[in-house]
Design a protein that fits this description.
The chain is α/β, with parallel strands linked by helices.
Amino acid sequence: MGYKSDIEIAREAVKQPIQEIGAKIGIDSADLLPYGHDKAKVSQSFINSVQDRENGKLILVTAINPTPAGEGKTTTTVGLGDGLNRIGKKAMICIREASLGPNFGMKGGAAGGGYAQVVPMEEMNLHFTGDFHAITSAHSLLSAMIDNHIYWGNELDIDVRRVVWRRVVDMNDRALRQITTSLGGVANGFPRETGFDITVASEVMAILCLSKNLKDLQQRLGSMIVAYRRDRSPVYARDIKADGAMTVLLKDAMQPNLVQTLENNPAFVHGGPFANIAHGCNSVIATQTALKLADYVVTEAGFGADLGAEKFMNIKCRKAGLAPSVVVVVATVRAMKMNGGVAKADLGAENVDAVNKGCGNLGRHIENIKGFGVPVIVAINHFVTDTDAEVQAVKDYVAGQGAEAILSRHWELGSEGSAPLAEKVVEVIAKGEANFKVLYPDDMPLADKIQAVCKSIYRADEAIMDKKILDQLKLWEEQGYGNLPVCMAKTQYSFTTDPTERGAPTGFTIPVREVRLSAGAGFIVAVCGEIMTMPGLPRVPAAETIRMSDDGVVEGLF
């Protein structure tokens, strides 16, 4: 049986006007700012008007560590949202926007797949409503104003060697990781070394996703540290007087984007910090607004639960006062087999032993989530090559972990295939067993917070930090930043810092290479092992096969 590609399915979708989608969740057309016929931003005045309503139930979708076999976290998020609506519940989904870099690199799009997608798929994976361009522009404005300040006399006495604000572009471009600016003589300023990160790694992105409103946004932007003086005292974005203009550039980007699933159910798609170098969750403003409009809100956190879910709990929920009622951990039989040592080329053949061997990775994620006091359901994202025996092996393993695994066939069947998962989610939430707690208290020393994540979540023996890093953390504590959570920047492919180390390893250490203060976003970034804040393109980038067809449609995005 031949299956249609994601983009073919998306193109055949019968979309409803976005005003009709808004009406389903009580948003009047006057409160929607349409971008064409099928996407719109929700006005800030409407968002303000619903804040006194009771919250719906929050459902987090996370996953095992990603493998080349694919897990389908966004697909499951969309499928579960559709499934909840199918069984008569008022549900919304909240996901992140896609970054152009990975779309043209190796990842493809980020709008789900099969019959569990958010549309319009092409626009979502391209420029969408311009949010990422606005973030890039706001970030670039600050970069320009810092260099301009130094050029016109450097009144703030910035040490040119200690400008920590880099530049960003929303593309994978390894050539820009380390650059020298202001060459060409006196007229062009003072030469210095800097570099580019990808837009989704910008602190502006993290701030946009954690801010409650425009006032909070400006205050956070102003609090970003951009450089240091010779006496090591910090220089803030507000000292450069950039925070007001940056807020103006971001005023529309702050408003959540409303789109729809293939089954015409409402979805907010807003924000998109990477999960390995940032906190990997969609915006607080979108999630909080959705909770006021729907009885059930399904959201996702990037990569495996060791990164996305940990940061969702310890950063997003802590900062926004959110608490999930249940966590769905996505796993596939194929990924279990890969974790069990099967090569990608051999995944089609039945191998129950490899499934059993590979379940250790899933088991550790289940245990970790339970440590946050939230019940866990495993969603087995069904692939057509899965055999009954392999699926049963995962179910039996999960039952042994004190949880339940549900086979979900949303990719193939849409909400009909995800209805059993939706029923189980509603059943677990109704029991009211969630008693959410964060991993560490605010007042724990920063170094101990890093150790807590490394030992409790990754199961490392310890995090290795040299004196320079420990002294830096101490200094930040003295400056009043000791109560911030930590954001671990680490490979997504393993619990360790070695991307090839699959399964559930023990007996390893986590080397912390450097620490960065994101004073505006409100967290400390601990960079572990080799992690790139500017990815490169693969040998054969996806961009080589993306083109316009003769009849004027986009091809190759998936």
